[in-house]
Amino acid sequence: MSECEMIVEVKHKNKTLTSEQIIKQTEVIEKKLLSYTGKAIADFRMIENGDRVMVCLSGGKDSFTMLTLLKKLQQRAKIKFELFAFTLDQAQPGWDDSKLRAYLDQVGIPYEIMTRDTYSIVKEKIPEGATYCSLCSRMRRGIIYSYANEHGFNKIALGHHRDDLIQTLLMSIFYNGQIKSMPPKLLSDSKKNIVIRPLAYCQEADIIKYAARMNYPIIPCNLCGSQQNLARVRIKRLIKELAADNPKIPSNILHAISDVQPSQLMDRKLWDFRGLTTDIMEN
Fold first, then answer.
1. Which CATH architecture has domain 3-260?
2. CB 59, CB 219: distance < 8 Å
3. Upper half-sphere CA count for residue 104 (Cβ side, 13 Å)
4. pLDDT, tens digit, for every residue of 191-205?
5. CB 69 within 8 A of CB 34
6. pLDDT at position 2, please?
7. SS3 for 257?
8. For 268, which DSSP code?
9. Where are the domains of the chain?
10. 216-275: per-residue pLDDT in tens?
11. Cβ atoms within 10 A of the Cβ of 89, count?
12. How many whole angstroms separate alpha carbon 88 and alpha carbon 90?
């Protein structure tokens, strides 16, 4: 199910609610999202006084929600930091950013929408039926990093949420044989960019509901969105099935990322297994 379909489904379910009830529910969800976002920012010192934060606005529900929450936190925060929205038009067929521009003008956030035809390159390089995500994200990341460097932004905000983090962990274990995920704060390989993920504690279900109520001008992705057999879709389905029996499973997986115990794993770079001895042997 695409982002647009999920949001439409939520809107359909809300048809029986009064406007007062919808407003109340929106306030409750917004308060929860703001709390989780503020906690993540504080826990990992994502944003500090004087930061110039470039918010990567893809046109999806997650990045729209992140931008809204950061704007509200900016207005309440004791520290001063800048927000700038950056959108990359990858020249996908059907791309229309007219409503996006109108939205950003309305909320008063400075922005730039840059056009770079990465779509044609990805379609040319990747065989039909294979996953486009790796090459597409690599090219997009390079453009984003370069733009941030050229324009003096010291923080780059991405809209990955809790579910993205836990799905990435399981994908890495199952398909790559590594224990890694998406860190909430990351220094790029070039040491020039700090990437932050303010929604690291936020649940996708809450974001879907919030985006439906905010009526964002969502721009669907026609590239990866058309590939229904992605590994991430299968992992997402697996977690959902497990959570049906135990709702704590998603939060437990997130907690596992932040409570790593090297002595209980097998990585010899992190723990000196060969050097372990007992007091009896030493005596």
1. 3-Layer(aba) Sandwich (3.40)
2. yes
3. 23
4. 889 999 999 999 999
5. yes
6. 56
7. helix
8. T
9. 3-260
10. 999 987 655 445 457 888 999 999 999 999 999 999 999 999 999 999 999 999 999 999
11. 18
12. 6
